[in-house]
Amino acid sequence: MNSFIEWLQNTPLAVAVSEVWFPYLESVHVIALAMVFGTIVIVDTRLVGLTSLNLRFTYLSDRLLPWTWGAFIVAAITGTALFTSNAQGYMANTEFIVKMFLLLLAGLNMLYFHKVTLRDVASWDGGRPPQAARVAGYASLAIWVLVLVMGRWIGFTV
Amino acid sequence: MEQLHSFSTWLSETGFSQIIQTTNNAIMFIQVIHIICLSALFGCALILALRFMGRGIVSEPLQHLSARVTSAIWTLLIVLVISGLLLITAEPGRTITNPAFYFKMVCLVVVVGLTLWLARAARSESTQLTPVHSAVAVCTMLLWSGIIVAGRLIAYIESY
Lengths: 158, 160
What we know:
The structure holds two protein chains of two kinds.
Chain A: H1 2-9, H2 12-47, H3 57-85, H4 87-91, H5 94-115, H6 131-157
Helix pairs in contact in A: 2-3, 2-6, 5-6
Chain B: H1 2-13, H2 15-22, H3 26-52, H4 62-90, H5 92-95, H6 99-123, H7 131-153
Helix pairs in contact in B: 3-4, 3-7, 4-6, 6-7
């Protein structure tokens, strides 16, 4: 594992990112994360029953989540490139590990919501969601806020 | 330029600036608030821009959607300005003598003006959406992106 990380950090791509492209890739990464978080906040605040109650939940999420996913792919690609520039440093950074764990948690929360909670969406689509859906919404909001906190914290500690 | 440097030095030596500078993780905490609000605002701006382009949440009347989205944008903007002022106070040498900071401020002024124009157009019931509205909507998203990029590049671009 260590030799792979060391090899990764010394690839021509990683060196180019480290020496030239880091600020530009980081800028794109932050724009993409802003779009991921910005669209998720709108969907989640509808899910917890705070905003957009005049819209059906599925309508709102169908309209916004393609933007979330598109931005997430861009964030993942730029994030991976940024990681290669100092792979050993990031792997030894607690905040980075916590951020990755939070992303995994966000994915699991979303998976459970889609596979279980969303099954009876027809009964609450146009109104206030049930407790299970609201819990998923609050959990998602908390996780994504923490992802941003960790993302910023990495900049101070790596 | 010399006056800016003098002002920056004076500001960084004020008691309030010193409190922020010496409080554990205060700058990081303010930055996090700033980024969270900017990201939430980016989502709201996207909804508004898409609606003016005839996409996104088209089932909601423009007038209604614009009213609730712009009120969220202005609220978030107030928090952004306050947290931004705190960051400038904490680290004036990093911001007020930095060209990226001025680019960010120009983008901010222009995007606020364009958003006000869009909000006014939405309030008028006789407004028919035209390619001009779409173009302005695209410009607002480019400007918000420019604000994010400039904010990040402040850390990399040398101050005057």
